[in-house]
Amino acid sequence: MISITYIWLIIALVCFVLELLTPTFSFLSVTFGALFAWLFSLFTDNLVIQLIVFLVAFAIFFIKLRPLIYKHSPKAKFNSDSLVGKVEFAATPITVESGTIRMNGTVWQARCIDEECTIEKGSKVVINKIDGNKLVVTKVVE
After folding, report:
1. pLDDT digits (tens, 9 = 90+) for 86-129
2. Do residues 46 and 105 share a domain?
């Protein structure tokens, strides 16, 4: 039968690899918890103590380390966020209520940022923000 000491190391290794594959910083806390439990397993065979050490170390790292890492990591842009600032062409006339833009073969719903705005089909527009599932645009003045 495999020793609990090796099991803690296997858990730590698997969680570390999972953290590398999915950078959510959740598995990193489990990794640290398992490493501390492994360290204590070298001194005691009591599984209850090892589990308590694991849970306490996991909780401390999850509560303290994860927010610290998120605070200092660059904010990732999601696909839709990366559209802001792009210049495209109106596929249909765009008003404050409706319109469309074609980007990379995909049709996006769009609307004007101003109430009195009307953008003709084929006009250049810049994407100012995203409101729900619609792109909010203004006409590019050339």
Report:
1. 888 899 999 988 899 988 788 889 999 888 888 999 889 999 98
2. no
Domain range for 93: 81-139
Residue 84: partners with Cβ closer than 8 Å, 6 or more residues away: 127, 128, 129, 130
Helices (H) and strands (E) in the chain, counts: 4, 5
CATH number of the domain to which 123 belongs: 2.40.50.140
Strands 134-139 and 106-112: parallel
Torsion angle in degrees (nearest 10) through CA of 122, 132, 141, 85: -110
Residue at a domain's end among 48, 72, 96: 72
- List the structure tokens of 17: 């690899």
CB-count burial class (<10 Å; 0-12, 13-18, 19+) for 115: exposed
**Within this chain, do residues 12 and 55 fall inside the same structural domain, yes or no?**
yes
Q: Are residues 91 and 52 in the same domain?
A: no
100 and 80 Cβ atoms separated by less than 8 Å = no
| pLDDT tens, position by position, 10-68 | 999 999 999 899 877 778 899 999 999 999 999 999 999 999 999 999 999 888 877 77
